[in-house]
Write a structure and sequence with these properties.
Pfam families: FAD_binding_3
Number of helices: 12
Strand content: 25-35%
CATH topology: FAD/NAD(P)-binding domain
Family: Belongs to the UbiH/COQ6 family.
Keywords: FAD, Flavoprotein, Monooxygenase, Oxidoreductase, Ubiquinone
InterPro entries: FAD-bd (IPR002938), FAD/NAD-bd_sf (IPR036188), Ubi_Hdrlase_CS (IPR018168), UbiH/COQ6 (IPR010971), UbiH/COQ6_monooxygenase (IPR051205)
Distance between the termini: 41 Å
Radius of gyration: 21 Å
CATH class: Alpha Beta
Largest sheet: 8 strands, mixed
Structural class: alpha+beta
CATH superfamily: FAD/NAD(P)-binding domain
Cofactor: FAD
Shape: globular
């Protein structure tokens, strides 16, 4: 007998597993398929990346029951300092006392651990890990995926969540607007002399942004942060080949001493940077979420948050449709998801792309113009509030799961 589920989620990473869990909390069943080994994904040192979880995304995690597991591991972001090369004219974003933090920083490993543990105990989720999809079918009455071991999984709706290189998206023939920034993000943990005071620093240099993101102190009280340093692709190999002492000296120079003396913690990883946005988020009985739908520059830390907004929206659309007796793969529901998410995701990505290009223009005059604009934002509370609400994910039409 076929074990047909509501959803067939292809990709069990942060966004895909959150989709499965959020759907399950709303009563929707799913198969989740991923090629990766969960033990490797949650191993110490596998992925040194950390993610800024916005206010809206934290609401989502709270509403699907992850807050208690995650709370001890997150560092609140109480302020964001944005500066053009540490010159005068920076912007300081700070929430009102009643609003809590601007977000929380988590190691990706901790997010995976919490998600995997919650999914393992959820009867509406069946995980197929270390599994390769060799065939996908989308028809008038349902979808299926055939795995390499011969297993055939059936569902009403296929959800593509495999990330930027999504084979589901490619097989569906969905085209993308895309370009390469010719930059690479270098990511490594730091320990430092001074406390970070829960402040995230976004320091813009013509060669690329240099971000210092606060993490919880170590158990022995050592202060820790995550560094995301963007360099030109042509320079990346040389920077990565530097002796650690030289790399550290270069990083130290760019911080202007805001964290005091620095030391590297862990290995340096690197990721190429590009822009990609699909022409559509849907096809017949198919919805794309996360990086399968839109990959962006990490300049504002919105990539994962944008994917979590996809999750909240898709779950809400499906639940409301099923209450009316509609099938999860109904074209009306997919059209609503497309309409709701397309404009928001494009606006966020366009703003991020614009900032990347604006701050990449070298020279004194462009720097002076940028700092003048930043000074205007700093002195204009309504404008500053708008930027903060965008960063926190609480502006516009927000899905119920992402509300407090």
């Amino acid at each position: 007998m076929s074990d047909k589920r509501d959803l067939l989620i292809l990709g069990g990473g942060l966004v895909g597993m959150t989709m499965a869990l959020a759907a399950a909390r709303a009563g929707l069943s799913s198969h989740v398929v991923d090629r990766a080994d969960p033990a490797e994904l949650t191993a110490e040192g596998f992925d040194g990346r950390a993610s800024a979880i916005s206010t809206a995304s934290w609401n989502l995690f709270t509403n699907i029951g992850l807050a208690d597991a995650l709370e001890p591991h997150g560092c609140p972001i109480d302020a964001i300092a944005v500066t053009d090369g540490m010159k005068p004219g920076r912007i300081d974003f700070k929430p009102q006392p009643h609003e809590g933090s601007l977000g929380r920083m988590f190691h990706n490993r901790q997010l995976r651990l919490a998600l995997f543990e919650a999914a393992a105990s959820e009867p509406l989720i069946t995980r197929h890990m270390l599994a390769t999809v060799i065939e996908r079918q989308r028809g008038e009455h349902g979808v299926s995926a055939t795995l390499a071991d011969g297993t055939v999984l059936h569902a009403s709706l296929m959800v593509g969540a495999e990330g930027r290189m999504s084979p589901t998206r490619e097989e569906a023939g969905i085209t993308m607007a895309q370009w390469d920034y010719s930059h690479r993000a270098l990511i490594v943990g730091l320990t430092h002399e001074k406390p970070h005071d829960n402040t995230a620093w976004e320091i813009f240099y013509p060669a690329g942004p240099f971000a210092l993101l606060p993490l919880l102190d170590a158990e022995d009280g050592t202060h820790r942060s995550a560094l995301v340093w963007t360099v030109a692709e042509k320079d990346a190999a040389g920077v990565l080949a530097m002796p650690r002492a030289m790399f550290l000296a270069e990083a130290q120079q760019r911080t202007h001493g805001v964290l005091g003396g620095l030391a590297l913690h862990g290995e340096i990883s690197s990721w190429p940077l590009s822009f990609q946005h699909t022409v559509t988020l849907t096809a017949q009985r198919l919805a794309l979420i996360g990086d399968a739908a839109h990959g962006m520059h990490p300049i504002a830390g919105q990539g994962l948050n944008l994917g979590l907004r996809d999750v909240g929206t898709l779950v809400e659309v499906l639940v409301e449709g099923m209450r009316l007796g509609l099938d999860p793969g109904d074209a009306q529901l997919l059209a609503r998801y497309q309409k709701w998410r397309a404009l928001d995701s494009l606006m966020v990505m366009s703003a991020t792309d614009g900032l990347t290009r604006l701050f990449g223009i070298p020279g004194r005059l462009p720097s002076a113009v940028r700092r003048l604009g930043m000074g205007i934002v700093q002195r204009t509370p309504p404008l500053k509030r708008w930027f903060m609400d965008e960063a926190r994910g609480v502006s516009g039409q927000v899905p119920a799961l992402l509300k407090g």
